[in-house]
Amino acid sequence: MVPTPSGGRACLLIEPDSPPPLAAKQREERVRALAASVSRARPNSAAGIPSSFPTECLGVVTGANNVLDPDRFHSCSSASYSATVVSVPGGTIIGRVPLTVLQWTTDHAAALGTAAARDHGVDVTAGTGTGVLAGGVQLSFTSLCTVNAGICSVTATSGTQPALYTSGSETTVIYTEADVGPASSGVNAVTAATSELGIQWVETYNNATATWSDNGTYQSAGRGLANRCDSYLGIYSGINASARGCVNETFIPTLTYSAVANPAVSDVAQHVYSAQASLPSHWGVPSQGNWLSRDTDLTDQAANRMTACTGVLPSCDEFPLASTHQGAAFSAAGDWSAVTVSASANSSQGGITGAFYTSNRMVEGDKFWVKAILANGSASW
After folding, report:
1. Contact residues for 89 (Cβ-Cβ < 8 A; gap 6+)
2. Is the CB of residue 254 less than 8 Å from the CB of residue 370?
3. What is the pLDDT of residues 184-222, one digit of tens each?
4. 47-65 pLDDT, tens per residue?
5. Distance (Å, rounded) from C-alpha 53 to C-alpha 61?
């Protein structure tokens, strides 16, 4: 508790607030302005820090206290808070500053030195203060990597803290966060950072402070920013330090076999197109909800191929893929398919699948959808 100007006592609070202090349209306009201002402030992204607010995250401003997973390499959140001073006893709010907070992560394509890394951006805008906080409130915040030291560490910071937040004032800070968890040193390891990322607030009033950590778990999605780092990329190329990286593992990507983009894969595209239409589970079709999940166990993969491809010569294509937990050895009879395709189509499919697994950092159990596009442009979904 702290003394108030009238001689009483009060508590400091920073807490989620509803409804948001800005209308959706106002918030969207402010975020677009943010993109321009950050771009002007950081024209050089050579250090790996993005030069602008990611356009992939603009959709997060259309709702209050929500999260957005726009792709495999971004995570976004939007929330509303109040910094308040509450009288004691009585619990009356005698001062309040509403705050709109945007957070986002952008994953680095390659390791930062020997560690996987991401950029974690935070933008805070203040509304109009009232009562004893009519003149604003002094706030600072730090990356939760300073708290979760076994998960990540901050290697660079852009932005100034603390700051006095008065009506309309805005602060943007971008942290470069390096993985220091299991994936930073182990082979075929994962560092789970979802719901470990966020910011720790410090509110200062009348020479006293209040501290509150936010990892977004109060939000409607049940979590905050999503991120996972791993050292699995070497499944295809051999583990080395630069193979480590991070993704938003909650986003389910789509593996596409397109005979338009790659005519060599036409036989496989036709097979997947037909199998998705005819198999009871319609594997890999989002509207049916039956995703595939990666199976990295070579014994499982061999069992899938043996079950599906025995007698299917000379070049067999099976669906679901042998490298999934839904392959023929693990699915009901009649819920998988195997056909003969050209050797060139099989080779092309292998290259496309491997590149997909690698670029999306698909580790054991990761989910994905599958789409087939025929030479005439028809898509399986």
Report:
1. none
2. yes
3. 887 788 999 987 888 888 888 766 676 766 665 444 444
4. 333 345 788 887 776 554 4
5. 13
pLDDT, tens only, 133-183: 999 988 888 899 988 888 999 999 988 788 899 998 888 899 999 999 998
**Among 225, 238, 245, which residue's Cα sits nearest to residue 109?**
245
Q: Are 99 and 110 in contact, with CB atoms under 8 Å apart? A: no
**Could you give the strand order of the β-sheet that contains 199-205, starting from the edge strand earlier in sequence?**
163-165, 137-143, 199-205, 208-214
**Cα–Cα–Cα angle for 367, 369, 374, rounded to 5 degrees:** 155
